[in-house]
Amino acid sequence: MKIILLVAKAKNQVIGKDKQLIWKLSADLKRFKNLTTGHYLLMGRKTYESLGRPLPNRTHLIITRNPDFVAPEGHHSFHSVEEAIIFCTNLQLDRVFVIGGGEIYKASLPLCDILEITEVEASPEGDTFFPELDTQHWKEKERESFPADENNEYSYSFVTYEKR
Ligand SMILES: NC(=O)c1ccc[n+]([C@@H]2O[C@H](COP(=O)([O-])OP(=O)(O)OC[C@H]3O[C@@H](n4cnc5c(N)ncnc54)[C@H](OP(=O)(O)O)[C@@H]3O)[C@@H](O)[C@H]2O)c1
């Protein structure tokens, strides 16, 4: 099973502010939907709550320390990233997507096989950060870059990293 991390991060590693995303990038949302539809998504409780409701056609695996948290029907909660990964392994999934936020990226980065990073050409203020990548451990495999346009407020690159 491949553990694939998906994130959109700014040049200064910012990924969020006030529990929200901080840019309008339609291309990134579209890519997120294309990559994740039909799959299992692992996320922190705060990111889950920021979605407002489960995303259609995806199974949500929500990480929380709260023993009373109840996931909606058809979705699941766990008390650690490792517990959720074991659950996925037992289901013999071919992949699971780690979709944030900051705490869960930090906890899961050492377990991931592939990083799909949208590098956003901006340095906004924020309160949530993606960890600095150690290039000794991660090798860039693909990069596609695009200019800003009416649907994407900054220029951006879709970059794939694989574990060395
Ligand atoms: N740019 C992007 O691609 C992207 C993607 C996703 C999210 N975001 C942004 O990231 C921000 C949210 O990130 P965040 O770091 O504040 O929160 P988060 O990682 O989404 O969730 C944190 C919560 O996860 C649970 N948790 C974390 N570590 C745990 C562990 N080791 N064991 C058990 N439970 C654990 C705790 O839940 P309990 O408090 O319930 O115990 C904790 O409060 C928002 O601004 C969001 O918009 C950005």
Q: Write the CATH fold name.
A: Dihydrofolate Reductase, subunit A
Strand content: 25-35%
Please, how many domains? Answer: 1
CATH homology group: Dihydrofolate Reductase, subunit A
Mean of pLDDT: 97
Per CATH, the architecture is 3-Layer(aba) Sandwich
Low-confidence stretches: none
Instruction: Give me the strand/helix succession.
Output: EEHEHEEHEHEEEE
Name the shape in a single word.
globular
Ligands present? NADP nicotinamide-adenine-dinucleotide phosphate
CATH class: Alpha Beta
Share of residues in helices: 10-25%
The total count of strands amounts to 10
Strand order of the largest sheet: 5-4-3-6-1-7-10-9
Please give a structural write-up.
The chain is an alpha/beta fold. It has one domain: Dihydrofolate Reductase, subunit A (3-Layer(aba) Sandwich). It contains 4 helices and 10 strands; from the N terminus they run E-E-H-E-H-E-E-H-E-H-E-E-E-E. The chain has helices at 26-36, 45-51, 81-90, 102-108, and strands at 2-10, 14-16, 40-44, 59-63, 76-78, 95-98, 114-120, 128-129, 138-146, 156-163. The protein has an 8-stranded mixed beta sheet with strand order 5-4-3-6-1-7-10-9, with helices on both faces. Strand 3 (40-44), helix 2 (45-51) and strand 4 (59-63) form a beta-alpha-beta unit. The longest helix is centred in the first third of the chain and has 11 residues, at 26-36. The radius of gyration is 15 Å and the shape is globular. The chain binds NADP nicotinamide-adenine-dinucleotide phosphate (NAP). Residues 7-8, 15-16, 19-21, 43-47, 50, 63-66, 79-80, 99-104, 107, 128 line the site of NADP nicotinamide-adenine-dinucleotide phosphate.
